Amino acid sequence: MAEGTAQADHLAGYVDILLDVCTTGRRLTRAELDERRAQGMRAAEAGLALRGLVRDHLAGAREAHPRLPAGAAGPLLAALEQAVDAFAEGYERSQHQAVRQEEAARREFIDDLLYGRSDLGRLAERAVRFGLRLSQAHAVAVAQGREPYGDGYPVARGIEETVLARFGNRQILLTTKDGRLVCVAPGEQPDVLDYFARQAYAATDGGRVAIGRSHQGPGGVVHSYEEALGALELADRMGLEGPVLYAADLLVYPVLTRDRQAMADLVESVLGPLRAARGGAQPLIDTLSAYFDSGCVATEAARRMSLSVRALTYRLERIHGLTGADPADPRHRYTLQTAVIGARLLDWPGGTGS
């Protein structure tokens, strides 16, 4: 159907209404207004442009004007205003419904994509609609700010506009999930996620971004997303520094906790004697953490802990005396450092360690 014919269908009966209204002096009835709204909704669903439809309404009024009695210009304009207003209301209502349906479909797709709850073949088909080709490898970046963010938040909208303005043709999906900002990009284009990370860090006032590894296929997005979430959780637990975390750089930690019971046994065996210290084990564990994080340089560790070098050295000696392991001895250092990492991963001694 040609567009002109389609638009004429949505104006059927309109001129007759104008003639009758202007001749009788009445206003449009509720039924006539409802019909104009319905026609507006159908026109929107057909994809017709509102500007052209309004122009056709004005043309219809010009067509009716010569057939009206003298002095009917005022009633004609009033009827035209009523008719166009009702038509535009229906048109906008249809568009709003379409937007809500699209948003609901997008949110459902994102939930299925990030949780892997849908049939993978069907998920790949739906992904095309949102600009993704799940047969390829993808990586996911997750940004966490000082406050939760939703789709309509200015921060989320600003980052999306900035990233899409630069990489609009890169098959990127930006969204929010559980108050975090999420970016899905092709795995062979790490520059997209790096740029997203910089924008998110700046926009969230010092938030933190984690980037998962690239994985193939529909399930790869879920895998990368879970890696990014795990990196954020690990950073909080381990006190890792830096605004951007790469899951590929943190693989040692999941390896260490793969056998949680073995790690718990190591922590208890090596660090358990520190409970006998005045103030408990935690201050001495913090000392070991600072010592190892500073490359076993006592002066740097003391500075990080706001202690004198003498006070820090005393603590290291106390650890040696209680555990029998000397932090300064390379033979003991690996065991102690692994136990300290395990304590932080298991929240020991504050947690259950299991």
What's the short story on this structure?
This protein is of the alpha+beta class. Helix content is 62%, strand content 8%. It is built from 15 helices and six strands.
Characterization of this structure:
The protein is of the alpha+beta class and about 350 residues long. It has 15 helices and six strands. It has helices at about 5-10, 15-25, 30-45, 50-65, 75-115, 120-130, 155-165, 190-205, 220-240, 250-255, 260-270, 280-295, 300-305, 310-325, 330-345; strands spanning about 135-145, 175, 180-185, 210, 215, 245. Strands 1, 2, 3, 4, 5 and 6 form a six-stranded mixed beta sheet that branches. β2 and β3 (about 180-185) form a beta hairpin. α7 runs antiparallel to α8 (about 190-205) and α11 packs across α15. The radius of gyration is 33 Å and the shape is elongated. It starts with a helix and ends in a 9-residue tail after the last helix. About 35% of the residues are buried.
What topology emerges from the helices and strands here?
Layout: H1 3-9, H2 14-24, H3 30-45, H4 50-64, H5 73-115, H6 120-129, E1 137-144, H7 154-167, E2 173-177, E3 180-186, H8 190-203, E4 208-211, E5 215-216, H9 218-238, E6 244-246, H10 252-256, H11 260-271, H12 282-293, H13 298-305, H14 309-323, H15 330-345
Parallel strand pairs: 4-6
Antiparallel strand pairs: 1-3, 1-4, 1-5, 2-3
